Amino acid sequence: DAAREASNIVKGQVARLKPLHKAAILLHALRDETTREVTRGLREFEVKGLLAEIDRLPDCTSVETVAVVHEFFHIHRLFSSLGDALETSDDILKAVERWASRHPRRLALLLKESWLSPRV
C-alpha cells in the first residue's frame, strides 16, 4: 500500500532526527503562548538550546511535524488524551495544541524525559 510505504519513509526520516530538533519541531507547531508556558517548566540551558534550534528550522512541513508529534505521543502513550478521531494533519495539530495548552508542565516534563535529557 502506497500510503503505508510513505508513512514508513517519513517515520524513518523522523527517527534519524536529533532529539533537540524533534523537540523544537514539536514546540514550533504550538502557538507562541503555549510554547512560552511549556518553556517555563524547562531549565534555562534547555530553553536556549530549543530557541536556537527553532531559529534554524526551515519551514517544517506538516507531514514532518505530524510525524514528530506522532512519535512523541506514541512514546508517552498519550493518543487517548487527544480525544476525537484525528483524520487530517490539521486535526492532529489542533488536538496537540489543545492538549499542550492544558498540560504545559506535563509537556515540559515529557520533553525532558524523551528528548531533552542528556543520554547516559
Topology of this structure?
Blueprint: H1 2-15, H2 19-28, H3 32-39, H4 44-56, H5 62-75, H6 89-102, H7 104-116
Helix pairs in contact: 1-5, 2-4, 2-5, 2-7, 3-7, 5-6
The CA-CA distance between the termini, in Å, is: 39 Å
Shape: globular
**Quaternary class:** single chain
Number of helices: 7
Largest sheet: none
Got a strand count?
0
Q: Summarize model confidence as the mean pLDDT.
A: 88
Low-confidence runs of at least 5 consecutive residues: none
Helix proportion range: over 70%
DSSP strand content: under 5%
List the helices and strands in order. HHHHHHH
CA radius of gyration is: 14 Å
The class by helix and strand makeup works out as mainly alpha
Summarize this, please?
The chain contains seven helices and no strands.
Primary descriptors:
120 residues; mainly alpha; 7 helices; globular
Structural features, described:
It is a single chain. This protein has helices at 2-15, 19-28, 32-39, 44-56, 62-75, 89-102, 104-116. By secondary structure, the protein is mainly α. It starts with a helix and ends with a helix. The relative contact order is 0.18.
